[in-house]
């Protein structure tokens, strides 16, 4: 079965679709000057957009990995936005860890694996 890749860059693709599964690259906010809640909202909006383009949606998420710059400072703000966004009755398994991200202004990055529709 073929692998379909979306938004291919030199080092990565934004998404890969294979055998009914969608794999998203780590998604970020577009505006990195905002606080954790703003960055989380934008990141989740980008996830919605990429999942739709790949033929899926947030109700079909199989797994989420969340990377936070500072888990003690940002965990509550992340969860406030996540809880408002996640599809009711479809909260996926997830991991949330603290990590040094690629730029100091990045507060959150989220990787998603989802079933295609």
TrEMBL record:
Superkingdom of source: Bacteria
Organism, as annotated: Zestomonas insulae
Coiled coil: none
Alphabetized Pfam families for the sequence: Ribonuc_L-PSP
InterPro entries noted in UniProt: RutC-like_sf (IPR035959), YjgF/YER057c/UK114 (IPR006175), YoaB-like (IPR035709)
Listed name of the protein: RidA family protein
């Amino acid at each position: 079965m073929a692998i379909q890749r979306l938004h291919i860059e030199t080092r990565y693709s934004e998404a890969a679709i294979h055998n009914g599964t969608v794999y998203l690259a780590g998604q970020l906010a577009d505006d990195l000057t905002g606080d954790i809640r703003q960055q989380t909202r934008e990141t989740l909006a980008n996830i919605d957009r990429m999942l739709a383009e790949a033929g899926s949606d947030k109700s079909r998420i199989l797994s989420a990995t969340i990377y936070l710059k500072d888990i003690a400072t940002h965990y509550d703000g992340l969860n406030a936005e996540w809880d408002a966004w996640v599809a009711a009755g479809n909260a996926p398994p997830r991991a949330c860890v603290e990590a040094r991200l690629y730029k100091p202004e990045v507060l959150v990055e989220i990787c998603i694996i989802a079933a295609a529709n």
